[in-house]
Amino acid sequence: MLYGLDFDIAHTLGTSVLLLSFALLYQRRLTGVLEAFALQAVFVAAAAAWQAWSQDAPHLYITAGIALGFKAIAIPLALGHIVRKLGIHRTVETVVGVNLTLLAGVALVALSILLVFPVTFASGNVARENLTLALSVVLLGLLMMITRRNAVTQVIGFMSLENGLVLAAVGVKGMPLVVEGSVAFSVLVAFIIFGMFFFRIRERFDTLDLQYLETFRGDRQVDRP
Amino acid sequence: MSDLLNTVYLLLGIPLVAAVVLVALPWHRVSSILNALASLATLLVAVSLLGHRPEVSSFVFIDDLNISLVVLTCLVAFTTAWFSASYIAHEVEIGRLTPTSLRFYHAMYQFLTFSMVLALCANNIGVMWVAIEAATLTTVVMVSIYRTREAIEASWKYFILGSVGIALALFGTILIYLAGQSVIGPGIEALAWTELHVRAAKFDPNILNLAFVFLLVGYGTKVGLAPLHAWLPDAHAEGPTPISAVLSGLLLNVALYAVLRFKMILAGNAGALAPGPLMLTMGLSSLLLASVMLYRRRDIKRFFAYSSIEHMGIITFAFGVGGPLANFAGLLHMALHSLTKSAIFYSVGHIAQAKGTQKISDISGLTTSHPMLGWGFVLGVAAIAGLPPMGLFMSEFLVVTSAMARQPWLAVPVVVGLLMAFGALVWRLQQVAFGEPRGESAKISASLLPLYLHLALVLVAGLWLPGPLVAWFQNVARLLGS
């Protein structure tokens, strides 16, 4: 196995993305969550650009550009605007304690190493590492969506999960543009839909905290007109 | 050049153009008719594919497996558009929907048809993934269209669970590409079904196994398999009824089709794990869970949503059993469930409008107060419960007997699940359809033709399946492997 500079840089960038997934888990303030997410997107963009250079695959620069322009700049700005405009309070309610969440996160990373490492011997160092890191980021994104109640943090959790998918897609050699384009596409559409939800939720309940929405669940709404 | 003349592009083009036109039309009556006409045109093109099969291109293809689902999807999309026209007219009258939201609704309906047909015809696992994601997002928006508190929560839940599922499916897709590119070489070919299927034997089985687990959990969320089904009852109950019909009848099938395709790749590789046990477990747990949950439902649409989970469980179980007979049963059940469940939702939609409620306890004596509608509902429920001579009896019978032949001890829980669901259906049917009519009871001008058309097809399928159809089903069942 050859561990050259190529691998070292890919390794550093990928690990930074994972590190920021952990950072996302323990942020208590909404603005902190947004900043951590923006920084994660910057590292995803850098990882994509590095792969574009080292694989000599220029189309990956587009992926990097999308990640940088859209996820690192546009979305955090827009969400920050929404948060300020709605004036929702800046603390984040967590369902499980931060320590427990971080422990669960470590367990998930261990799980993804155990899952991906043994089966990808033949796939090259970079692909192998990136897939492992990507799966960890995906699982941590899921964890964030489960442990947070606030609509904005759930959105961020979902998008950080998509960051993991981008990391996986760029790590595999020669992955056609179709998939990267589709990831960008889905984030775009997701954002539009989220935006609509925000305003509708705001319109109806004057809050973005989903806990207030959960009065209705399953068949409990028997008295509905 | 021949690529441009591909009939599949016409099939995809009609709904896409219709969506653009419909978003610009302000008159909802015209739109609902145009919506049905566009769906009819799509259906006609789909039927023409049966006679003349276009050549395989790098983006779309038609083979024995997907052509039946394409025709079925276009048929149910057309009859639902027809039902939707009379359903929507009533909703506008009582002010639940505004003309603006209807413009949106009709355009989204066509876009949904487009993305489902694209998912079925795509010769590329990336394109198929995008199409299924697009279909999901479209239905999320449509479920929230009433803008009630319940509708927003239902679509939020659907959105979150659907996105998680779809994200896991993308990870599985990337892994399949990873397995493919080491054999086929990097590039677009390593995402094409036709290539993946032929060369599957040489792929690294370990990567295929890992990929299939992600794909089954990811697309399984969209199929509504337990324990990932939580979104399904809410989305069915809170959205407009035509969307419930399309969700149950079509979108669940499309997601299952994706799982079947990947199952075929695994079947082509000797070293990969047998997908059977995984699918058996998920199918059986969905069947048993749903058949218990049926007893506690108080909302009529939610009740039939659980029935959909039950039937998707039966179908997944059948494909998990594997072998020509069980695969045949699974394919047949897929088609017949789709026809029957959409027929039931057509009747339920009108029933909820006539009685002004979805609460089962407030609905009774329908066969007396609305004879045509009530008896249509009775026939639909009899069919979904698996009573002979309706077609679902035959497919359920085949599922049970093929399970008996292959894994006898597995047939027992299936029969238990089927009987429990049967009990729940008969119990609720008596309450809703017979006895003294109670509560408010508005006259409704409903077009019941789609309902009876579907029931007639299901009845005919139970009595007699044409020879060529049987031969074709058997051929596909062989392709699916054990």
Describe the structure.
The complex is a heterodimer of chains A (225) and B (482). Chain A has helices at 5-26, 30-54, 59-86, 98-116, 125-147, 151-171, 177-205. Chain A has 225 residues and is mostly helical. Chain A has one domain. In chain A, α1 packs antiparallel against α6 (151-171), α2 (30-54) runs parallel beside α6 (151-171) and α5 (125-147) runs antiparallel to α6. Chain B has a domain at 274-482. Chain B contains 19 helices and no strands. Chain B has helices at residues 7-24, 28-51, 64-93, 99-121, 125-143, 149-184, 193-199, 205-223, 231-238, 241-267, 276-293, 300-321, 323-355, 366-369, 371-384, 391-406, 408-433, 449-463, 467-479. In chain B, α15 packs parallel to α18. The radius of gyration of chain B is 21 Å and the shape is globular. The mean pLDDT of chain B is 89. At the A-B interface, α5, α6 and α7 of A face α5, α6 and α8 of B.
Keywords:
heterodimer, A: 225 residues, disordered C terminus, B: mainly alpha, 19 helices
Give a topology summary:
The complex is a heterodimer of chains A (225) and B (482).
Chain A: H1 5-26, H2 30-54, H3 59-86, H4 98-116, H5 125-147, H6 151-171, H7 177-205
Chain B: H1 7-24, H2 28-51, H3 64-93, H4 99-121, H5 125-143, H6 149-184, H7 193-199, H8 205-223, H9 231-238, H10 241-267, H11 276-293, H12 300-321, H13 323-355, H14 366-369, H15 371-384, H16 391-406, H17 408-433, H18 449-463, H19 467-479
